[in-house]
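Hey, resending since the last one bounced:
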Amino acid sequence: MILPLALTMGEPAGIGGEIALQAWLRRADGVPPFYLIDDPDRLGALAARLGWSVTLRVIDAPERAVGIFPEALPVMPVDGRVRALSGRPDPADGALVIGAIDKAVAAARDGRAAAVVTNPINKEALYRAGFRHPGHTEYLAELAGPGTHAVMMLACPELRVVPVTIHLALRQAIETLSSAMIVAAGRVTHAALLRDFAVAAPVIAVAGLNPHAGEGGSLGHEDRDIVMPAIAELRALGIDARGPMAADTMFHAAARHGYDAALCMYHDQALIPIKTIDFDGGVNVTLGLPFIRTSPDHGTAFDIAGQGIARPDSLIAAVRLAAEMAARRKSG
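The structure tokens again:
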């Protein structure tokens, strides 16, 4: 039985709706079946305003989506009407945004959806609505239950990166970094490479924190005292972790051939190289969850929302990767 992917609305004032519509319009290009958890009225109005011929079909169960997908975009309604306008978020929509995530996760955990694909959210708008998590990753970990260690990976065909610290100010990231955090992220990454990416013998490159990986302590002690012990522990666990590597030389084309994923110490160290290499096709993957979750590797793009010019490439890549991961888990 083919299961559809559950796609969440994301921030309704952003580009999520229009890239979802475009992804469905490109279904003939091999886009796997998905259904969108959203407000059907606002989607219909958006498609009409942009002049796109999109047939919407309201569904009440994920199982109906696959049969409908070739002819219409299946939409499972959120519990209310969206108030936001393009580029102008409304905190009143926060409960709908969170509710869409909850519905998608419930469907995936119940075996009614193959995976969860999330459109970008606007954390500032959600904070005003009482959301208390730094982002999707942390909220999904809570939904997954106690003991879940969620890890964010950014992936494209040329590179996979995992930031050990994520949504922290740089000073706080350095102060927070520990060997235990690196080991935990490395273990989850190794398991995901085996299970979800079909890498038979994963190699993980570990970036140094400081320039030139600290140069033996002359450019900071963290690589010697925190990163190197973590690498040693990962290797003792049978994980092929290599480093610490100088971050300024580990992301060029030849270097990337030497590993399957790069473990980075802070947000920008991971995201700058992948967004430089493949800005439009990068995918955000949450590792360590009991269900599959992917997302476009970009934000809400309020400045161009509602104009029909946002590219759906990253969302389509996220949908395709989610389907590939689900197929690997099913066959495994």
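The domain at 158-277 is CATH 3.40.718.10 (Isopropylmalate Dehydrogenase).

Sorry for the duplicate.
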